[in-house]
Design brief:
Largest sheet: none
Strand content: under 5%
Structural class: mainly alpha
Helix content: 55-70%
Order of helices and strands: HHHHH
Shape: elongated
Radius of gyration: 16 Å
Number of helices: 5
Distance between the termini: 16 Å
Number of strands: 0
């Protein structure tokens, strides 16, 4: 069987994959992980009111979904458990935008590390 070479350098593959997913994902008028029309909690309302938080929520939901698809079953369970814990932590921020921003920054960095770890084992 003949091996087909990719035209995309392996070092750029993670960025290409995430960019394609974000580019082709449907654009919604609300945050990706919940419907802003149904937001009741203070953290959800703040996310819906602040574009930067909304954008961070979209990035977080996208990375979480991508990581979940790439991880093996045991890793997927751990990822889901960490997400539930993170959501509880986010809820404790209430409507505090600075607190929510810190929580999103930390979660995005964690999810990106998971993705980078998977991508470092390529090529795919």
């Amino acid at each position: 069987m003949r091996r087909v070479r990719s035209r995309v350098p392996a070092s750029l593959l993670p960025a290409v994959v995430v960019s394609a997913i974000v580019l082709f994902a449907p654009v919604a008028a609300h945050a990706a992980s919940f419907d802003c029309a149904k937001a009741r909690a203070a953290d959800e309302k703040a996310i819906c009111r602040h574009r930067a938080l909304n954008d961070a929520d979209v990035r977080m939901a996208t990375l979480f979904e991508v990581d979940g698809h790439l991880l093996a079953m045991g890793g997927r369970g751990a990822l889901q458990d960490a997400q539930v814990a993170w959501l509880k932590d986010r809820r404790r921020c209430g409507g505090d935008v600075a607190c929510l921003t810190r929580r999103y920054d930390a979660r995005l960095a964690e999810l990106q590390r998971v993705f980078d770890d998977i991508a470092s084992r390529g090529p795919f």
